[in-house]
Amino acid sequence: MAAFAxxxxxxxxxxxxxxxxxxxxxxxxxxxxxxxxxxxxFYALGAYFxxxxxxxxxxxxISPWLILPGLIISGILLGFIGPPIERMxxxxxxxxxxxxxxxxxxxxLMFQDVFKFVWGANPRALDSAYLIYGIIRTGDFSVPxxxxxxxxxxxxxxxxxxxxxxxxxxxxxxxxxxxxRDMAEALGVDVRRIYSIVFxxxxxxxxxxxxxxxxxxxxxxxxxxxxxIEAFAVVxxxxxxxxxxxxxxxxxxxxxxxxxxxxxxELEVLAIYMIVIAVLIFRPAGLFGRxxx
Amino acid sequence: MAISRRTLLTSAAAVGxxxxxxxxxxxxxxxxxxLRIGILAPRAGIAAAPGENGIRATQWxxxxxxxxxxxxxxxxxxxxxxxxxxxxxxxxxxKLVQQEKVDCVQGIIxxxxxxxxxxxxxxxxxxxxxxxxxxxDGVVEKIPNPRYLFRSTDNECEAIMSSLLTIKYWKGKxxxxxxxxxxxxxxxxxxxxxxxxxxxFNIEHKVVTEQWPKVGTMDLTSHVAALKAAKPDLIFSSxxxxxxxxxxxxxxxxxLTEGTKLVFPAAGWQHTLMKKEFTPExxxxxxxxxxxxxxxxxxxxxxxxxWYEKTYKDYPExxxxxxxxxxxxxxAAVEKAAKAKGGNWPSQDDIIDTMVGLSxxxxxxxxxxRKDHIADxxxxxxxxxxxxxxxFVTLGTFETMYSTELQKPPGADxxxxxxxxxxxx
Amino acid sequence: MKVSPAAIVALCGTCALALLPAVVPPYYAGLMIPFxxxxxxxxxxxxLFGYTGQLSFGHAMFLGFGAYGAAVMSGVLGIKSxxxxxxxxxxxxxxxxxxMGLLCVRYVGIFFGMLTLAFGxxxxxxxxxxxxxxxxxxxxxxxxxxxxxxxxxxxxxxxxLAGPFYYYCLGILVVAGFVMWRIVHxxxxxxxxxxxxxxxxxxxxxVHVHRFRLAxxxxxxxxxxxxxxxxxxxxxxxxxxxxxxxxxxxLVFMAVLGGFANFFGPIIGALTFTLLQDQLQxxxxxxxxxxxxxxxxxVIGFPEGIAGLANDLWRRLARRxx
Amino acid sequence: xxxxxxxxxxxKVFDAFRALDRVNLAIxxxxxxxxxxxxxxxxxxxxxxxxxxxxxxxxxxxxxxxxISGVGPVELAEHGLARAFxxxxxxxxxxxxxxIAAAVISRQKKRWRLFSRxxxxxxxxxxxxxxxxxxxxxxxxxTVSAVLSQxxxxxxxxxxxxxxxxxxxxxxxxxxxVSTADKHTIMKTLIAAAKxxxxxxxxxIEHDMDLVAAYSHRIIALSEGQVLADLPPDRFFSDPxxxxxxxxxxxxx
Lengths: 293, 425, 322, 253
What we know:
The structure holds four protein chains of four kinds. Chain A has helices spanning 2-32, 39-59, 67-77, 82-90, 97-119, 145-167, 169-179, 181-186, 191-213, 223-238, 243-263, 268-282, and strands at residues 135-138, 141-144. By secondary structure, chain A is mainly α. Chain B is an alpha/beta fold. Chain B has 13 helices and 14 strands.
């Protein structure tokens, strides 16, 4: 029984990580119809910067118990990269979608060398931080409290984003702009500012996710490129642009991956792609996406 | 190559200076054209760290050699290019050989790239020394008995040594075995080699689960859960990239590592990240051909480690030794061939012929070249300890073995060899 | 019959490339082989992107079909004739692209890009996973083949690549270019362009939008495989790196760098990219940053790409002369 | 007179909204039939059903006796039913000649010719020249559509539909956005072009009553998805109650 619980928690944990990565991508696409290939780079940036931020904080004597809020703050601080990048993307809004996609691909190339230049080739990690909040252990079942906090963070983000988009006034404006940009503009919505804020929010979601998850793992140079694949798998399954889709997509990928690792270890990555293809055939717009001819 | 009288005089003067500085070697005629060596190493992505280790060790060696007059009187100039995908690396190699006209190419860490580049090396007739990256798959067929290519020890040596030490330390103390290895030829072959050696010594064992995470996976919690469910007595893992410390951290958090025997032949690549918090003592830990804190290391090695630590605030791993061995053995071969030719600069064929059978003192200990152009080097593996003043684990008890005991003889089939070889345990 | 400017450009380009090996050191002649591979693949890619308005972000997959096809045929089956391999991989790639295309062509814009990216990554993980069949990360060997039935045994592979094979690839590029020129200037080609500009209106003019998008997808797959076979032959190995998503991104980069609105744009883009990457790699360890910055500059400042710039310059010159 | 286009109690329901309710109409050879009615009367839905863009909820659309319900515009273009749009639809990067040629290619069934040079295909180019001539666009053949004037774009949109040599052509407010002075000249050009192109019947969706009065053989009034009237112009305009409904002052019965 404990083994089942371990596997379940492992799957949910991976789903939480995936959702945090995909949420930023979904938000930006949902409102601005931009597919941000650099979502992995924002995630890696959050991870690297989170490590430096916490190491600096511990040198200043700040108690290790404050690591979680510290990481979240470091993720939010990185929000400053949002507006300039959005400003760059704005210069190609009028043009074909492929130009925006390509611009984010340029970002991926540039960020690759920024990581190596600033943080060097060796993988970086926060070692003492992971178990600071202890481990819950009953019999064979055990899970670090930090993992549960990451899951909680994903749930809070999902709920927060959902509430923000559905209930707040600002959220409605965002959805209106997403639905029909020209109409929103006609109704006096400053779309330019909205896009800047949405893109920054998307970026912050990515960087904070990276910072939050790094204590359980490490930051390495190939992360930015590898994470794009899993984030896209989640988004294709869930449906491009739908936040609920990202949540369900993340859960599906997380759990299927966890169970295939236990029962068919050979299939692991392929299991995820089997789902992606199945969704493409039967629900091409994804489970929650709007089908576009 | 007509040597003008003027160069004759200046080189004679150089020779005088050299001998004064205790440099034994005194070539009668030294071309003063610098000796250009091409380096091909990863500088981005997941293999950037070992690539950096190799480049730094080569630069250190070149500085030391140039301070003593270079190789056979010629100063060494390094031309560094990046090893990335097989296609791009072949282009960079061609640039080094055809455009930069380097005298020797050294480098290559990835297996895939090494196998792709092999035939190109032979076609280009360019002396090339690999640092790493040759696993059994396809090696025989893709680069059969090379002339210009010198390849590192087979990548399975560390697995063979770990298997032998596992039997030595824990024979009869384990039955269920689990594997978690990177999903590419290196990981696959190491796991298979481990099982083959257990069978060779008919050790009773039962493989309960085999995990194959993709290289660089950052979330291994599900793999750890699967391993825990299988309740193994022993875990064999040749993880060696950034995923290794992540696995240890997540395994420790899940209580997987307590009471389970751990056999990690390639952990040395990430040794500074294997922190004491999550890496237990008594784990079989492979440092391959360079253990930085080896008490009976040579003064050369101690000097290198001290330099590395002072310059980079870090400790080197075996890729540094592989790079050093490449350039040190090249230097020794060139100088020996030059002496044999009475001081004239030796041809590439002379150097190659001298290289075979040559043995040199590398950072991690003795190293030599076999007649099939595969290296023999000294391997170090042992059980981890926390009793040190670093924040990561080092080796408590450890063994040193020469690869002649760990590597199939020239021309033999690896899997057959395991079944028949006389291993000294 | 007035010789069209395009014919002049094609002629000059071919002559320049023909003279290249005599002028530049052999390394650069060898460097041109991947350029030929990419140029041929980009002709197909641009039929889909520039002419039909569909951006495929998994196009490296078709180069992979070509390379692995060549590996299977010459490495495993021992087939020696490169022409046979070339034709077979083109047909095979087209055959695989058919069912895949049926799925993808119902989508446009970003959705189409995402689907092709997903398929590309599926093929990459398939190559990695079934290593017993595909050799996994060490890939599959592509042994040397003869061209036009000739062995050229007197050349070793390096000389062979920089010599006979160079001209052979130039020939294939010229043929491929001519074939694609005819396609693009045929009734079929015009209907593709109507789909790009206004698919709804095109339908009302009797244009089979879905079927034609699928046809363009299949043709681009065939051209991609031809390019992949040449790449595989040059490297001597077909490996999963060839189909990784960043390679597909690089193909789009070349097309936009050259100017996808122009027929010769992608070919110019492939040439510029190959030389640029070669020079940058020797210049700095951080060459990816520079490439990324150049891509951003092109996308923002010069969306018409090099061909567009050349056209503007030519027009300004012509106006000043006239 | 033979019936070309016919609907049999054609209905279309979007969720709860009944856009069309058992519409029966017939277009005969040689007729110009106008369809009028206030906004929301179901005119656009009718056009979309007639051109196969939408499938009817129930009832049928028959063209030359064949059931073409929901067949899609591509099939219909082949059968000879063309449509020009209310909002101008052109191909921005293609020239006038290429836009017209696209239709001619479909008409002459040369769409699958992958290797023949379009420029050298005389039958196509001859036909393109003729159609351009009819619509006074011959001097603009090599101009890229995006730079044409609004009026020229309108003409091109309609010309490309005519180039299909359709039996029946459906004009959705062809003169919208054109100055009142030019409206009649455009209508005369269209009708003359129709004769030249061998078009047998025209369906005109129009708000402008004096155009409808001037050129229609028959007028169908739609209100709230139902056919209010199907009369020749003289009887149509003699019924004040009908006019008010159509112009939209008073809701229909």
